[in-house]
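Budget justification aside, the reviewers requested a transparent look at the raw inputs and outputs of the sequence design task funded under Objective 1. We therefore reproduce one unedited record. The lines immediately below are the structure tokens for a 113-residue chain.
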């Protein structure tokens, strides 16, 4: 069902992009195949990897999903099985990277017709 979810996100984002909109999709897309499929569908695609240490993700986990995954209650938690991007367009460190925000705005302005 995750594959179908990411396929739907990709199709919707590509449809809106093709209508001239700038679309931001804040999704983990933890498999490289999901990100590759999204890149293939979009006319202008920017992949941003928010590089946050797992320990920090666990601290921010208000729902306790990481604890449940460690207890064996959840299988295939995206944060646990994340495939790190080989060549993202942008790497933001820790989610509080102001330089990355400026770089993202520049990338988007250059790629959007």
């Amino acid at each position: 069902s995750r594959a179908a979810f990411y396929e739907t996100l990709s199709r919707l984002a590509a449809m809106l992009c093709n209508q001239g909109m700038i679309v931001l999709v804040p999704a983990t897309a933890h498999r490289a195949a999901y990100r590759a499929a999204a890149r293939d569908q979009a006319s202008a695609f920017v992949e941003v990897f928010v590089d946050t240490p797992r320990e920090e993700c666990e601290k921010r986990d208000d729902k306790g999903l990481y604890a449940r995954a460690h207890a064996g209650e959840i299988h295939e938690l995206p944060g646990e099985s994340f495939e790190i991007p080989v060549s993202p367009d942008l790497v933001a460190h820790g989610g509080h990277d102001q330089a990355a925000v400026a770089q993202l705005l520049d990338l988007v302005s250059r790629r959007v017709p």
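The chain has five helices and two strands. The mean pLDDT is 85. Computational costs for records of this kind are itemized in the attached budget.
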